[in-house]
Design brief:
This protein is an alpha/beta fold. The protein is built from 21 helices and 31 strands. The strands form eight sheets. It has a nine-stranded mixed sheet with strand order 12-13-11-8-6-7-15-16-24, sandwiched between helices. Strand 27 and strand 28 form a beta hairpin. Bound molecules: 5'-O-[(S)-butoxy(hydroxy)phosphoryl]adenosine. 5'-O-[(S)-butoxy(hydroxy)phosphoryl]adenosine binds next to helix 11, strand 21, strand 25 and strand 26. The site of 5'-O-[(S)-butoxy(hydroxy)phosphoryl]adenosine (WT7) has 22 residues, from helix 11, strand 21, strand 25 and strand 26.
Length: 706
């Protein structure tokens, strides 16, 4: 049985359908789209005549200069809103102030610590009841962003430069991003959970000369040493001949005495100068105009894992991204300004979800966006549980909550009593993103968080798509647990076979998009070849000969036209909703002095969705040092710690299995399917984990199968 058959047979059993509710029942004045018929008519028109559709939609942005052409498509290159000029920060902030909404709340922020902020929060016994909360109005945001923007200019940042941002979830992260785009610089945000090496690799790739960070960030009562990681990366970079000119540091934790690096005149590692944000931002003045940007100027870079080689810098450009993200945020979540909505997406801004639906999509729609700094289980209860998320929802009267299936599965494990303790009657729409949601988790979310009334929007999309590609639109689309339902307006999606032919109902195939859409990636930074081969090189439309955009996901479409995404078909693993290239983890392993070869595969995991299993062969040097011994648990732990240090905690393997040789096909390809079966326990090689796995027999038997 192929993987797609298996997924089909499981999913076919899911027959439950949940119909949309009247808007009033959920406390909305109305739905933006309120029937299936209306959706169908709009979608059909948007795909038949995209020019008219997007010309209308683009009117929701403010333009410095109008565009003359909606779209120019020379596959795989799309240009949108040609000739137009605008600015992302202007659309998110300034225009609201100008329209008289300056006193409205733009960002609500809650810090993680609940103890008095002196000393280490976890070690303090005197817990304060209230955490630290900040609310920024559009006017305040405009001022903070302008100050930061003029500081960046003073530090030599110019239009077209890439600024690296490595920060905790604090308001300054949003301020820094908006400050970059205000002056026409692109941001490249690196998730704070990544290791120094990840910063180094990305800064080199992006030719980035300025880094914005914080001394530390709070996470489950611990402090993540962000500045220390940046210092390490700056040194690594200098060794590569790449000099970071400036590092701007927000003092968040104050957990270490001001480093030597900040002393006036001597504030540097080599040629890199370090500056405290609070001493620098503001010193260059309060005013800084929004740069006029071409529609197709780069807005940001965001790195994502690929199946081969280094992470890819996904390029998004200004107007197309803004147009698509404002629309999807509005329709998917039924957003309206001035209606008491509070939107909370729990994703870190370091991922595309945070870019589009913590920051840009919300500010453009003028709906307050909530940012939470820390973990769902801080303060930590017995057994590692926590109810902080539910407390936050109740405290801030959150109306929209958007999270990932892996988080939902964790909450399920922590028990029904925790959400039950909190008044979450404020919730209207629930969202999920990141991986297919299993029907049990969907049902739990529906019942225990959504009071069996809130629509659940299962949003399918990618870093590369910029915004939602398939999702129910509440009010219009009946939902089925586990299905991301139907394409977004303007998205011409299909399931095809290897020949690019569209498949009939319930046939497992490949997920493609046939026509360009405004927020599609414009490239892989500095790597045209990878852009073409990864996304457009595999499938062609047999009717037109045009390349099709392939998302690298396997999926099927049911008899109602609903999409059911089955997961990646490449060597990329989704662990707790985060993409990891098997190559990244393998490279980290072989950089360890004792490792000769490594093969990394994913296997199903109850909470994480997938977990990582690494098969490792050791070098002679290890055997020479440990004569007559089998690789120990200690070595296993050392390798796990090594991956953690090189890539980050996300990438650490759950299993490390030692073998004398990796199973390979006659042509020398690692038999990954066999390894996946072994990792999942489907195929047993060695029962006893203290001995070496011997693949020779099984590999021979399965040669023809691979
Ligand atoms: C991959 C993209 C999209 C923002 C977060 C992840 C998987 C994402 C769903 C969903 C099934 C999903 C796909 C996709 N995925 N959302 N609702 N149902 N699968 O962005 O890190 O670029 O990952 O996540 O496999 O290709 P990303």
């Amino acid at each position: 049985m192929s993987t797609s058959d298996q997924a089909t047979s499981v999913l076919l059993q899911e027959k439950r359908v949940f119909n949309p509710k009247p808007a009033k029942q959920l406390g909305f004045d109305r739905w933006h789209i309120d029937s299936l018929e209306q959706y169908k008519a709009l979608h059909e028109a948007s795909v038949r005549d995209p020019e008219s559709f997007w010309r209308e939609e683009a009117k929701r942005l403010d333009w410095f200069e109008p565009f003359h052409t909606v779209c120019q498509w020379e596959a795989p290159d799309a240009k949108w809103f040609l000739g137009g000029r605008t600015n992302a920060c202007y659309n998110c902030v300034d225009r609201h102030v100008q329209a008289g909404h300056g006193e409205q709340v733009a960002i609500i922020w809650e810090g993680e610590p609940v103890a008095p902020r002196t000393g280490h929060p976890a070690s303090s016994s005197a817990y304060a009841k209230e955490p630290e909360i900040r609310r920024l109005t559009y006017r305040e945001l405009q001022l903070e962003v302008s100050r930061c923007a003029s500081t960046l200019k003073a530090l030599g940042v110019k239009k077209g430069d890439v600024v690296t941002i490595y920060m905790p979830m604090i308001p300054e992260l949003a301020i820094a991003m908006l400050a970059c785009v205000r002056i026409g610089a692109a941001h490249s945000v690196i998730f704070g959970g990544f290791a120094p090496h990840a910063i180094t690799e990305r800064a080199i790739d992006a030719h980035s000369k300025v880094i914005i960070t914080a001394d530390g960030g709070y996470r489950r009562g611990d402090i993540v040493p962000l500045q220390k990681n940046v210092e390490e990366s700056v040194t690594q970079l200098a060794n590569h001949g790449h000099i970071i000119n400036h590092v701007l540091v927000v003092k968040r934790t104050g957990h270490q005495p001001p480093s030597e690096r900040f002393k006036t005149g001597a504030s540097h590692i080599g040629a890199t100068k370090f500056h405290w944000w609070h001493e620098t931002v503001g010193a260059s003045g309060d005013a800084c105009p929004c740069e006029s940007m071409d529609s197709e100027d780069m807005l940001f870079l965001l790195y994502t894992s690929g199946s081969t080689g280094k992470p890819k810098g996904i390029v998004h450009t200004t107007a197309g991204y803004l147009a698509f993200v404002q629309m999807t945020a509005r329709l998917t979540f039924n957003l309206f300004p001035d209606s008491g909505q509070v939107f909370w997406c729990s994703a870190d801004i370091g991922w595309i979800t945070g870019h589009s639906y913590v920051l840009y999509g919300l500010l453009m729609n003028r709906v307050p966006t909530l940012m939470y700094e820390g973990a769902p289980n801080f303060p930590t209860m017995e057994g590692g549980k926590g109810d902080r998320f539910w407390e936050i929802i109740a405290r801030h009267r959150v109306t929209h909550f958007y999270t990932a299936p892996t988080a939902i599965r964790t909450f399920m494990k922590w028990g029904d009593e925790l959400p039950a303790k909190h008044d979450m009657s404020c919730l209207k729409v629930l969202g999920t993103v990141g991986e297919p949601i299993n029907p049990e988790a969907w049902m739990w979310y529906h019942k225990h968080i959504g009071r069996e009334v809130c629509p659940i929007v299962d949003t399918y999309w990618q870093t590369e798509t910029g915004g939602h590609i398939c999702t129910p639109i509440p009010g219009a689309i009946p939902t089925k647990p586990g299905s991301c339902t139907v394409p977004m307006l303007g998205i011409d999606a299909a399931i095809v076979n290897e020949q690019g032919e569209e498949l009939g109902a319930n046939k497992g195939g490949l997920f493609v998009i046939r026509k360009p859409w405004p927020s599609m990636l414009r490239g892989v930074f500095g790597n045209r070849e990878r852009f073409i081969s990864n996304y457009f090189g595999r499938l062609k439309d047999p009717a037109t000969g045009q390349p099709l955009y392939f998302s690298a996901d396997g999926a099927r479409r049911d008899e109602d036209g609903y999409f059911w995404v089955q997961g990646r078909v490449d060597d990329v693993i989704k662990v707790s909703g985060h993409l990891l290239g098997t190559m990244e983890v393998e490279s980290a392993l072989v950089s360890h002095p004792f490792v000769a070869e490594a093969a990394v595969v994913g296997y199903p995991h109850e909470v994480k969705g997938n977990a990582i299993c690494a098969f490792v062969t050791l070098r002679g040097t290890w055997y020479a040092k440990n004569p007559g011994k089998q690789p120990s648990d200690e070595l296993r732990k050392e390798l796990i710690a090594h991956v953690r240090k090189e890539v980050g905690a996300l990438a650490q393997p759950d299993q490390v299995r030692f073998t004398e040789g990796l199973p390979k096909t006659r042509s020398g390809k690692i038999m990954r399917r066999l390894l996946r079966d072994v990792a999942a326990g489907v195929e047993k090689i060695t029962q006893d984990t203290t001995t070496l796995e011997d693949f020779s027999v099984v590999a021979k038997l399965r040669q023809d199968d691979e």
